[in-house]
Inverse folding.
């Protein structure tokens, strides 16, 4: 009986021990699992710290990037503003260039007009100089022909011969016709004849009035007759010259070569 009791007790103890061992194994496994979990947790915590450090580094970098982005944005804004201003300036420059080109074209046109006008003036002046040179080198008779192209008035010539001849100015009609030397000669002769006649009359009057007729018949009548004959001759000669001159000028349109 005692053996059975002991055996039973032993079996029960063994069962308990076995049970305890099993439980201890289970606990050990649990402890091991807990340790693994703790290690995993520690590893995860280490990874978290590392990740936290990385994240902090990334955040810092992101902040730096944000700062750089802001700086770049400001730079881009400045560049955009400068581009806009440069576009405006470019447009202004283009407008100024157009204006300058227009001004150059206008100046070119003005210079061309001035050059053309100066050339025309020079050409006109050269023509005038040539004309003056041609006129200067012409013969005196050409001047006379250009001046005296119209016929003379025969009535004026006749009046000058008669009226002025009666007062001792014979030869004026010849001067009117252009025969100046001949007219001056006739005028001088008429003065001489009138002077001689007047001299004899003055002597006769101062000496004796009774001898007037004899003096006139002897000496004084000669210059008087000579003057009236000369007076009549110059009338007819002036008329003849006027008709001859008018005929030649009317037919030829120029002065007679012998004039």
């Amino acid at each position: 009986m005692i053996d059975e009791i002991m055996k039973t007790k032993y079996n029960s103890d063994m069962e308990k021990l076995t049970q305890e061992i099993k439980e201890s194994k289970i606990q050990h496994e649990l402890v091991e699992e807990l340790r693994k979990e703790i290690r995993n947790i520690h590893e995860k915590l280490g990874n978290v710290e590392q990740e936290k450090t990385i994240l902090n580094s990334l955040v810092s970098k992101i902040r730096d990037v944000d700062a750089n982005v802001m700086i770049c944005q400001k730079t881009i804004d400045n560049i955009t503003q400068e581009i806009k201003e440069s576009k405006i300036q470019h447009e202004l420059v283009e407008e100024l260039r157009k204006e300058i080109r227009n001004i150059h074209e206008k100046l070119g046109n003005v210079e061309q007009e001035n050059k053309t006008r100066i050339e025309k003036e020079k050409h006109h002046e050269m023509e005038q100089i040539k004309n003056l040179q041609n006129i200067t080198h012409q013969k005196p008779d050409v001047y006379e022909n250009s001046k005296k192209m119209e016929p003379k008035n025969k009535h004026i010539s006749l009046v000058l011969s008669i009226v002025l001849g009666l007062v001792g100015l014979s030869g004026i009609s010849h001067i009117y016709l252009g025969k100046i030397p001949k007219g001056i000669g006739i005028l001088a002769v008429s003065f001489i004849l009138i002077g001689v006649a007047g001299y004899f009359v003055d002597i006769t009057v101062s000496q004796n009035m009774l001898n007037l007729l004899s003096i006139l018949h002897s000496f004084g009548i000669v210059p008087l007759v000579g003057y009236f004959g000369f007076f009549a001759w110059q009338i007819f000669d002036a008329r003849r010259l006027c008709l001859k001159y008018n005929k030649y000028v009317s037919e030829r349109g120029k002065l007679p070569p012998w004039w």
Notes: The CA atoms of residues 82 and 88 lie 10 Å apart. Confidence is low (pLDDT under 50) at residues 141-146. The chain has six helices and no strands.
